[in-house]
């Protein structure tokens, strides 16, 4: 236990690694290697692409849409025919987000009629919207 000042103490105090101590330097190198391995893994780009699309555009993206966004994440560039986005480095979020929003599936109005297209609402939010549409009031008229 480490005491700080008069009334504060940490059970697990923050530790800062020193590049001078060989054991701590090895731990830093191993941590960097593991993080680099996770980021460069072949499933990282499709995972990030799927999550970005699900949170920003549609809950049920097509495999082509996920593949295009994952490719923009891998290559770091995205071109919509007129403009080019990104710096060309792996994981460039400018290219990835541009690919998410500028893809045909994100902007197509014909997909609005498809029942499998769109974003699923959370159950509680869906219930609240239903109650508001039915003009439900509480007994004491509070909102």
Detailed description of the structure:
By secondary structure, this protein is mainly alpha-helical. 49% of the residues lie in helices and 7% in strands. It has helices spanning 22-40, 44-56, 63-75, 93-102, 104-107, 123-133, and strands at residues 2-4, 8-10, 78-79, 84-85. A two-stranded antiparallel ribbon has the order 1-2. Strand 1 and strand 2 (8-10) form a beta hairpin. Helix 2 packs across helix 4 (93-102) and helix 3 (63-75) packs antiparallel against helix 4. The radius of gyration is 24 Å and the shape is flat. 14% of the residues are buried. The model has no long low-confidence stretch (mean pLDDT 84).
Write the layout of secondary structure elements.
Blueprint: E1 2-4, E2 8-10, H1 22-40, H2 44-56, H3 63-75, E3 78-79, E4 84-85, H4 93-102, H5 104-107, H6 123-133
Antiparallel strand pairs: 1-2, 3-4
What profile does the largest beta sheet have?
2 strands, antiparallel
How many E-type strands?
4
Indicate the radius of gyration in whole angstroms: 24 Å
User: How many angstroms does the end-to-end distance come to?
Assistant: 49 Å
Average pLDDT, all residues: 84
Low-confidence stretches: none
The shape, in one word, is flat
Structural class based on helices, strands and sheet pairing = mainly alpha
Strand order of the largest sheet: 1-2
Given the structure, what is the number of helices?
A: 6
